[in-house]
User: What shape does this take?
Amino acid sequence: MVQSEWQGYILDEFRLAEFPPGARVLDVGCGAGEQLKLLRAAGCEPVGVDPAGPTVARLVSEGFDVRAGVAEQLPVEDRSFDGLVCKVVLPYTDERRAIAEWRRVLRPGAQVRAIYHGAGYYLRYLTEGPAVVNRLYAARSLANGWWYAISGRRMPGWVGDTLYQSAARLARYYREFGFALERASPSPTYRGKPVFIYHTLLRLGQACLVIGGAVCATQA
Assistant: This one.
């Protein structure tokens, strides 16, 4: 997220790195390591995952535990983390598989703090993009998001490399994989659609399924 370009749309009060001291926290798509540094400063035990080899090597050289991998197949152990942060990474993944991995790697009671791209992010680029390439990128991202919502699949190739998230789709994943939405922080919108989505989740001890309108519990 670029501060100057998105000024007024970013919730500065949403803190990704607010976990108790001593918590083992996974940063999915850690990038340059901004959250890893904040987590370490807060007394947490941060672990990062990122697909970029040079980024991983640099952070390892700085003393961080960072591993090469992707969000859909995290290279970490089952139930090994007390918390997880994910800052605008889901738009570039198969979102359902990525959230399924969150459940696998988190202990019951763990917290997730996540930021997603809403449809408003791409609508703004579509109508106000500074160049044709920005508007084309926004158009295919919106189309891919619509197709994913209908089919559960991304479009092939580069056309399907980015999709927006929706609160309704995310809610289905949370129910399916046993997460409770603790807080949806109010987000500024563009043409009635959220630009960013800010969610705080709790990993439940049991998977909660909705069957015929009733909530049923299955073993975690």
